[in-house]
Each structure stands twice: as structure tokens, then as C-alpha cells.
Amino acid sequence: MGTTSATPHDTGSGPDGDRDGHGGRWGRITRSPLGWMLTGMVGVGLVSAVTATGPGPVPVLGAAAAVAVYWLVMHRVARRSTTEIARLGAGREVLLGGGIGLGFILVSALLITAFGGYSFSWAGDGFMSVVWTAVAVQIGAAVTEELLFRGLALQALEKLWGSRGLWCAIPDAESGGCGMIGPAAGFPVPRPQG
């Protein structure tokens, strides 16, 4: 036995309404982890694609614009804070990360050179312009890659599956992926039967 209320109620479940009043069904889709991940990837990817091959400092300016797009998507669409791009300590982190990356590149180049894989000769007057162009393009590429993968994709997967499930989402064929990384990190990982 049931009763029906004659009082109209706004359930917000239709295509034009949303319980919190922000965009209806489309708003709920874009605020889901996969929705804000795709929105951010399109925004960051578009800015990076437009500025990647520009002259002079354009790729670096494009990287800064991509960070602004990331901040906008995370604040407005995902509705979360962006502590990963906080200004406090950012300069120190950029210098530390850049130094470590440069160290890896130099060690690799020196090892390849020592074993006869590379040979270097002085390029003359145009050397520095080529180096600065390459550095600017690499900065743009590095920032874009970090925003797309660590900033958007991995955060969306962690939001969907949690930290424990994220270990299994990062396949690593050489070490067995979830089967090797999970237990090493202290996560219990179910083993397949059979």
C-alpha cells in the first residue's frame, strides 16, 4: 500500500536540472573524474598544440597557459584545489627537477659518447639559438606531459579506483605491474586463481 504526494518536488534528475543547480546532466558528466580528465586533456592539449612549435619563448609561454587551463579545469570543473601547482616552493622544485633531469641527460649523453655512439663538434655562431629553441620546446613538452598524465589522468584514476586500485592501473610489464608493485608498497593484491 503506497501513497502519492500531490505536492510538486524538484528532484533535479531531469536533463535540465541538477541537484546542486550547476549545469544539469552535462554538468554532472563533466564533473565526474573521467569528464574533467577529458575536459582538461582537450584544453591543455589544445593550448600545447597551438604553442609547441612557435618561435622563441612561445613554447614556454604555452606551458604557462597550459598550467592556467589546468588550474581553471580543476577549480571550475573538478572542484578541487590544486596544491600540486602552488606557488610556495615552486621555484625550488623547478630548479631541483630541472637539475635532476639535466643530470640524467648529461650522464646518458656522456656514456653514449664514451662508447662511440655520439661525436660532438662546435657548430659556430648559431649554436646558442638552436640550444635555446630546443630548451623552450622541451620545457613546453615536459609541462604538458606532467599535466596530462600526473595532473589529469592519474588523479582521475585515483578518484575512481582509490590509491590501492591505482597501483593496478599502471602496468609495468618488466616488473609484473600490480603483482610486484602493490605488495612492495604494502598493498594486499589478490592473486588470480588457477
Please outline what is shown here.
The chain is an all-alpha fold. Helix content is 63%, strand content 0%. The radius of gyration is 24 Å and the shape is elongated.
Question: Topology as H/E string?
Answer: HHHHHH
Helical proportion, percent range: 55-70%
What does the overall shape look like? Answer: elongated
Major pleated sheet:
none
Instruction: Tell me the strand percentage band.
Output: under 5%
Counting DSSP E segments of at least 2 residues, the number of strands comes to 0
Number of distinct helices? 6
User: Mean pLDDT, as a whole number?
Assistant: 78
Our measurement of the CA-to-CA distance between the termini, rounded to an integer number of angstroms, reads 50 Å
Unreliable sequence segments: 14-18
Rounded Rg: 24 Å
Structural category is: mainly alpha
Describe what you observe in this structure.
By secondary structure, this protein is an all-alpha fold. Helices cover 63% and strands 0% of the residues. It is built from six helices and no strands. The chain has helices spanning 24-31, 33-51, 58-77, 90-114, 127-169, 178-184. Helix 2 runs antiparallel to helix 3. The longest helix has 43 residues, at 127-169. The protein is elongated and about 90 Å long. The N and C termini lie far apart (50 Å).
Topology, pairings included?
Elements (H helix, E strand, L loop, with lengths): L23 H8 L1 H19 L6 H20 L12 H25 L12 H43 L8 H7 L10
Helix pairs in contact: 1-2, 2-3, 2-5, 3-5, 5-6
